[in-house]
Amino acid sequence: MKLKTTLLGKTYVFRDVKDVLAKANEEKSGDQLAGIAAESAQERVAAKVVLANLLVSDIRNSPAVPYETDEVTRIIQDDLNERVYQEIQHWTMAELREYILDDATTSADLRRLSRGMTSEVIAGLAKLMSNLDLVLAAKKAVVTAHCNTTIGLPGTFSVRLQPNHPTDDPDGILGAVMEGLAYGNGDAVIGLNPVDDSLASVSRILHMFHDFTERWEVPTQNCVLAHVTTQMEAVRQGAPSDLIFQSIAGSQLGNDAFGVTAQMLQDARDLMLSHGTSTGPNVMYFETGQGSELSSDAHHGADQVVMEARCYGFAKRYQPFLVNTVVGFIGPEYLYDSKQVIRAGLEDHFMGKLTGIPMGCDACYTNHIKADQNDIENLAVLLVAAGCNYVMGIPHGDDIMLMYQCTGYHDAESLRQIFGKTAIPEFEAWMIKMGLITPDRKLTRRFGDASIFLQ
Amino acid sequence: MYQEDEVRRMVQEVLAGLVSAGVGTPAPDAAPAAVAAAAPAVAVGSAGSGGGRVAAVAVEDGEVPDVTAVSTKDEFHVPNPANRQAYLDMKQSTVARLGVWRAGPRYNTWSLLHFRADHATAQDAVFTDVDPGYAAEQGFVAGQTLCGSKDEFLTRPDLGRKLSDETKALFGRELTKGAKVTIMVGDGLSTSALVNIPQILPAIKQGLKNAGIEVGPVPFVKYCRVGAMDDLGPLVGSDVVCLLIGERPGLATGESMSAYMAYRPSEDKPESWRTVVSNIYAGGTPPAEAGAHVATIIKRILDEKVSGVDLKL
Predict the structure, then answer these.
(1) How many angstroms separate the CA of residue A291 from the nearest CA in chain B?
(2) Across the interface, which of B99, B118, B126 has its CB nearest the CB of A368?
């Protein structure tokens, strides 16, 4: 394994694979906070040069966290298809990158390839890709999933309707659901981040969502994003949940901080398949985000792109319907500004798709980061160009409960128009049936009028 | 345990004391209720092809209306809704930006600018530095954490929890050693939140004075994170340190402040050792009222010698 190179007359020696991967990362304030980032632009490039010449096997054999002590590593390594891995183990990372970008490499080829790459290998690829590389490669990596409807089909672009409310007021939540649907949002899921994590409240909202979508025959999924154990208890008591949600991390220690284990997620999936309301087989919903492991001191000295990729390798075990990075939520100490947020959004989407999971993105920002709505609209355009399965839809992009901003209800149809996309076919047909759009996709006067549901 | 009515009575006492002393009475024109009263009618978009126009805001001739004058609950622009009254009723149940209508698939101009104004409020609160003369004007002892700039403050929370060596030396000289209570002021994530200080600080002092508790000189810390109070604690040796600090702004709520209190704070105490009163601003808990409340909590902490989760409020 070669861990040394000379660049522009200066010799760089890296400690190990973890060090190469960290220093090859594009600049991130979180890696600097962790004290593992490249110290100069030249050192960053030197690390990329060394990384490009590492073999796939070099990286597979150096997981970020030891196999013996971490169940996330065990799941990633054990779920690999050894035959596919053996085909690529002697390739350099440069060769692997160029294979992925090769015109002759198809979506089906990438799907097969995803079975032979560990999360660290996929993270390594992201570090050798420019932003446009990330868009192009991800665009090729089509990943669909089925719950009640099918997400991720080419030509479609979906939105999670996020009707959050600072006190979980049922009328306020339902009002936001109506408005979102009137703007063509919600084909991915109608999903609430609850303030009140109690069983009674979670069950009440699930019933409310279910009753509403039944009455108006909305072809979609519902979910209340409480802790996994709360949702499981709600389902056991008969609450009509189509998906079970959980935030996850890229190490066992990070998952400890979320109060979640691999067994818990397996139990949740088994419960949903036996007692859930949805068709399946994809019944899980996960959220992630670069930097969360560092914030809980669970990063094991690895950089935040590697730890994020490991979330996806872990998520894949549970065959999710939705996975999204919440890319700008964590703050400037992890992603400094809009440039870093946009980069991270493209990296995460690429890594998710290359892992073989149906990836979406919460393109967002908090008020203490140097980013604004224009930046997030830029990222949304890039994501749809990259074939991203879904983004979030929030009234005017203003989440009045989580106190951050992300893509708004208006962005769903704007992006569909720009890229010639539709919603999920059944949902698209419903929009036409409701008179929101015409069959040739023109907006009607009813589009944007929530009170069509108040008659 | 203090009874609720007893706490209310103490708050009233402190407020009465403040009024008679002529300090810190809440300015009515700062309250959002007053703003709402100035714009009474629901701004219903009726005429015009472009949706609504806020017609109810009284302005002088030649002046463009303030885009933020109408609350998101009352702003409404859907031109011919299927059920106008039900829509307006529904909007009263949430401050989410509903009924904003559209230009093609995009936002209409009015709501776009309202949103931008609200974000600008939040951004200015975070990224504006405290005026260099601020601490001296207020009669505070001015110090700083290890952060050398706003950028460093935002990216290095660890440095924002530590006082600089110069500050430690200065505070060691200027602050009263062993004052029973030290009230500390920090900018935190909102410089705009310092607007609450002229109301909340006299209210806390008055409340403590009523109980016979004197407060030492007030240290001000620039680029301050909450953890900096743990660095200050051992330096002054006070039984209670109370930190008044700007919160991370929400959209349109740039002035929100929190008061963190701890019994003999130090680095080895967990975060759960702190008691917090948050959401202090004209539109949340008004600062004078919050100050009176904070004073009663400080007295409880002094009596019971515990704070945070161990203090059952």
Answers:
(1) 13
(2) B126
The verdict on B18 and B67 lying in the same domain is no
Of the listed ranges A158-172, A186-200, B35-49, the one predicted with least confidence: B35-49
* Closest among B195, B178, B158, B163 to B280, alpha carbons compared: B195
B109 contact A CB<8A: no
Q: Does A445 touch chain B (CB under 8 A)?
A: yes
CATH of residue A312: 3.20.20.70
Statement: residue B38 has pLDDT above 50: no
Interface check B107 vs A, CB under 8 A: yes
pLDDT confidence of residue B43: 42
Copy the structure tokens of residue B5: 């009515």
How high is the mean pLDDT of chain B? 86
ipTM of this predicted structure: 0.95
Q: Quote the pLDDT of residue A305.
A: 98
Instruction: Specify the DSSP class assigned to residue B271.
Output: G
pLDDT tens string B130-183: 999 999 999 999 999 999 999 999 999 999 999 999 999 999 999 988 899 999
Are the Cβ atoms of B251 and A367 closer than 8 angstroms?
yes
Evaluate whether B228 touches B163 at the Cβ level (below 8 Å): yes
Contact A417/B at CB under 8 A? yes
Residue B186 touches partner A, C-beta closer than 8 Å: no
Residue B172 sits in the same domain as residue B116: no
Give the structural domain span for A420.
Answer: 145-453
- What residues of B are in contact with residue A333 (Cβ under 8 Å)? 154-157
Do B123 and A366 lie within an 8 Å CB cutoff? Answer: no
- Using CB atoms, pick whichever of A176, A183, A333 lies closest to residue B94: A176
Domain count, chain A: 1
* Model pLDDT for residues B253-285, shown as the tens digit of each residue: 789 999 999 999 999 998 889 999 998 998 889
| Chain A residues close to B116, C-beta within 8 Å | 373
The verdict on B81 touching A (C-beta cutoff 8 Å) is yes
Q: What value does the mean pLDDT take over residues A437-446?
A: 97
CB contact under 8 A, A169 and B87: no
CATH of the domain at B80: 1.10.30.40
**Does residue A68 lie in a domain region?**
no
Domain stop point among B124, B149, B179: B124
Q: Cα separation of A200 and B92, whole Å?
A: 24
Residue matched to tokens 């945070």: B308
Is residue B213 over pLDDT 60?
Answer: yes
Instruction: Look up residue A110 and give its two tokens.
Output: 């990438």
Query: pLDDT band at A228, cuts 50/70/90?
Result: very high
The angle that helices A199-215 and A228-236 make with each other, rounded to 10 degrees, is 60
Distance in angstroms (rounded) separating the CA atoms of residues A28 and A51: 18
Q: How many CB pairs under 8 A join A and B?
A: 131
Domain that holds residue B173: 4-28+128-310
Q: What does the block give as tokens for B186?
A: 């920090």
Encode B184-247 in three state secondary structure.
EEECCCCHHHHHHHHHHHHHHHHHHHHCCCCECCCEEEECCCCCHHHHHHHHHCCCEEEEEEEC
What is residue A137's predicted lDDT score, i.e. its pLDDT? 98
Range with the poorest average pLDDT among A113-117, A360-364, B273-277: B273-277
